[in-house]
Design a protein that fits this description.
The chain has 8 helices and 11 strands. The chain is α+β, with helices and mostly antiparallel strands and 254 residues long. It has 2 domains: 4-151, Gcn5-related N-acetyltransferase (GNAT) (Aminopeptidase); 165-253, Glutaredoxin. A 7-stranded mixed sheet has the order 1-2-3-4-5-7-6. The chain has a 4-stranded mixed sheet with strand order 9-8-10-11, covered by helices on one side. The longest helix is centred in the middle third of the chain and has 15 residues, at 93-107.
């Protein structure tokens, strides 16, 4: 892959290059929130790695140690991939970024690498990309979530999801958004819910996750960083249009 280079961002490089997603709207609140979130997470060892072809960014991967992860998974001694995205398929960009993460895991003597996928949305990484790179499905959760793992040490305990998803949902009756700013599109997703709810005269409770302990305890899906719940039912774990929000909430009111 001549001319393609990997750049691992730190505080200084982030200031100059910025994060990958929503970079066309650098003044938006979501983009600002994401960059602040990244700066805070760098102190915990999070890796945010961009792929460049010449001066053009063509993809990125974000991963961290399980104990600091934004995904709801029990995976001690593993790295957890949050995001993987490339601008074009068939060029080996995704494989190069995944291999970079695997090499990091070997360097840190980790048991392996895990990733949460869901075929119902583009908000999670593509399942097939990881299967082609030697990952395997080891657990599933409601709403189409799958846990994939690449084992470096075969004798390590396998990661797994919590099992009390229904119980978590039932604890929410009022319309509630549970979120963090790991994704820059969370702000847009939140505004769409607020607008849709306003049309129905519904108030919205917003819980900004403060730490991993809170995320592991209350998040109703493995995705962790964004959930909309009403009357004990999951409305969304990814961005909806205002119309879709209105339609789903109205259906529960009738």
């Amino acid at each position: 892959m001549e001319g393609v280079r990997v750049v691992e961002l730190n505080h200084e490089i982030l200031e100059g290059k910025g994060s990958f997603c929503l970079r066309s709207k650098k003044q938006s609140q979501g983009y600002i929130n994401k960059n602040k979130w990244l700066n805070d997470r760098f102190e915990e060892g999070l890796k945010y790695v961009q792929l460049f072809e010449g001066k053009k960014p063509v993809g990125f991967i974000e991963y961290t140690e399980a104990e600091y992860s934004s995904r709801v998974v029990h995976a001690d001694h593993y790295l957890v991939i949050h995001c993987l995205w490339v601008s074009a398929t068939g060029k080996g960009y995704g494989k190069k970024l995944i291999n970079h993460c695997l090499e990091e895991a070997r360097h840190q003597n980790k048991a392996g690498v895990v990733v949460v996928t869901n075929s119902e949305t583009s908000w999670t990484p593509s399942r097939d990309t990881f299967l082609k790179s030697g990952f395997q499905v080891v657990d599933t959760a409601p709403f189409g979530f799958e846990l994939l793992v690449y084992h470096i040490h075969d004798d390590a305990l396998s990661p797994y999801f919590p099992s009390n998803w229904e119980e978590r949902l039932k604890s929410f009756d009022q319309l509630t958004i549970v979120r963090s700013f790991q994704c820059p599109y969370i702000d847009i997703a939140t505004q769409n819910v607020l607008e849709g709810a306003e049309k129905l005269g519904l108030e919205v409770d917003i819980i900004d996750l403060k730490n991993r302990e809170e995320l592991m305890r209350i998040s109703p899906t493995p995705y962790g960083i964004y959930s909309v719940i009403y009357k004990g039912e999951l409305i969304a774990f990814h961005r909806l249009t205002v119309h879709s929000v209105f339609k789903r909430l109205k259906g529960l009111l009738q």
